[in-house]
Task: inverse folding
DNA sequence: ATATTGAATGCAAACGTTTGAAAAAATTTC
DNA sequence: GAAATTTTTTCAAACGTTTGCATTCAATAT
């Protein structure tokens, strides 16, 4: 008596005293079907709200039209921008995105991947978790590779995998940011670094270090402190920086959140930005243009990364057997605003 | 020669010269299987990386363990918080979330729902698009209801549907925000409203209006301007407000983004916050605590909404036939910070 | 030696759809 | 009116897995 059972092709066939194949063909406008039969069946199908069961089709065709997106978090602007980019390209093509959040945990990442494979996902976009990255685990990726499921790395990557990847040129972005500070005249430039071990953190850190070296500025260990990418995590480190006997005259934050945290602390201390202290962030998040003063930052094209990653996936999917992995590195771009423009 | 075809139970059966049923039972630790057979099969399965095809199981059991999440956007803090909440509860239970972004478009929403139904999603969380809401369309929801697929409304809702819903008490949050401004002594309170027609906008607007009424303050049409929820959309309206012959002494923004935009414009004008102008936002986004001055706002429990919505879904799923829809309204909470604390 | 038990395995159907090939029905041709 | 042709429909298999029931085989009991 449960009216909620979805109506199937068989139901319709019974109703018309014909075979399921006829119904199937009628619904798919197959030319070998009598015009009247077709119309009747289509009308009836619409009337009873028939919707074909894609699950059975997936089984038959071994195509699921679903893709996995495995990311450490979705609560940052950048990550959602990437997902939007993926969406923009892939939703119109009929793909469904299965979003898995790993919270930076290896176990969750492993489980997510296994689940996606079990569900016969046709491709996987992966930004590995910090735990995975730290520990250098990679066994859980073997099965993905072995299955030849296209695997696209986003931002965080393993060098030694034969896979496509889309990353932002963090190194040169960071370099440009620090170079800009130097060009303005700042000399004691601190860095609020991201968590150790993550490519993103390390690349930006390297950009910072190498730029200082290039301009023969001393590298002061006491001006390099760790944060956790969010605003709060920048508060204490910034306080410590500003209480130093020889405090920095500029701070390069690993991202906008961190820079905004630093901005807040500096202002609380009565410092003027950019006169007393210069500030640069990273990401070009929407808010960065509207802080007071507005934040100099490095644009990180999240949407574009998502779209490029989609392209890489499609290339691999449609490519011939001897597929060659591609690496896309999108340039990051310095966006100069008020927080560093000391005159 | 393509080694990428996933190994199936049949493959294993062939290898052991036994029937697929035996393999299936062996893999599932069925007691009627000989200990040795079981061990051998399990070992071999592991060795060749067998992973059971969940698609076929879905077809067999009519259970897909996947849920749809249909939202207008994922680029705001609040939306991602909701999704995180859903995730927190549902991922551990084995559910997969299919995220569909509608970009506020009715057509995309309709297509997304139809796709989800075709994929035999077991439940749908829906925050209707603005277009849908404006036009009052609802036919596309009929098939969801008819299929008895649990449908949970999030925030934006249709009054006349017999479905569960989880919303935040925007009205009282807005009311409290305005009341707070009044209590501090602000009298000419402007409102940067959200897009017309959306429940969220209208409820907050209503809270604003009714609070003014309660305290016998005049309602000035010229102090009510529309925005589009993002920072940029607040810039021009705020400029207009501040250029009025009789400008407001406080602004209540429909969300934090808008309030931050307003903050920026006010500061550019040389106004001191909160001395010259008070500011209140809505959402309690992470950044709001670290603007300068920090932003008074109304906490909107996104994560909790997601978790509550999950609960509503599970209730409906496990409920008996005569299911009664539930409405959860979570309180919003005024968070007083510097931007409104004129002494 | 035969019946009885028990353990281990196989058979077949089911989930909903598509599709090549075969069959049936209708139409045309001579 | 039969043969040839065309149109329309049905059959059966396939996708990968599970599961109730039947079957097989060996061991035990009588």
Result:
């Amino acid at each position: 008596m449960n009216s909620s059972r979805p109506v199937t092709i068989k139901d319709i066939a019974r109703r018309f005293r014909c075979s399921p194949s006829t119904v199937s063909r009628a619904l798919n406008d197959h030319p070998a079907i009598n015009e009247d039969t077709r119309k009747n069946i289509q009308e009836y199908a619409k009337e009873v709200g028939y919707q074909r069961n894609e699950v059975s089709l997936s089984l038959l065709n071994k195509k699921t039209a679903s893709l996995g997106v495995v990311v450490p978090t979705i609560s940052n602007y950048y990550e959602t921008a990437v997902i939007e980019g993926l969406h923009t390209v892939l939703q119109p093509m009929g793909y469904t995105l299965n979003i898995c959040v790993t919270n930076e945990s290896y176990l969750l990442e492993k489980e997510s991947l296994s689940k996606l494979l079990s569900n016969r996902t046709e491709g996987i976009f992966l930004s590995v978790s910090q735990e995975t990255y730290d520990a250098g685990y990679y066994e859980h990726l073997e099965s993905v590779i072995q299955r030849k499921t296209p695997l696209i790395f986003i931002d965080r990557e393993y060098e030694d995998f034969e896979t496509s990847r889309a990353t932002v040129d963090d190194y040169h972005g960071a370099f440009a940011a620090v170079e800009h500070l130097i060009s303005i005249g700042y000399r004691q430039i601190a860095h609020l670094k991201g968590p150790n071990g993550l490519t993103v953190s390390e690349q930006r850190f390297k950009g910072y270090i190498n730029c200082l070296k290039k301009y023969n500025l001393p590298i002061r260990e006491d001006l390099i402190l760790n944060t956790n990418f969010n605003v709060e995590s920048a508060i204490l480190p910034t306080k410590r920086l500003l209480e130093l006997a020889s405090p920095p005259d500029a701070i390069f934050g690993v991202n906008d959140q961190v820079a905004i945290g630093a901005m807040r602390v500096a202002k609380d201390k009565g410092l003027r930005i950019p006169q007393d202290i210069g500030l640069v962030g990273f990401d070009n998040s929407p808010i960065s243009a509207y802080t007071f003063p507005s934040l100099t930052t490095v644009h990180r094209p999240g949407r574009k990364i998502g779209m490029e990653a989609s392209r890489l996936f499609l290339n691999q999917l449609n490519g011939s057997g001897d597929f060659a992995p591609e690496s896309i590195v999108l340039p990051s771009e310095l966006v100069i605003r008020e927080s560093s423009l000391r005159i």
Notes: The radius of gyration of chain A is 27 Å.
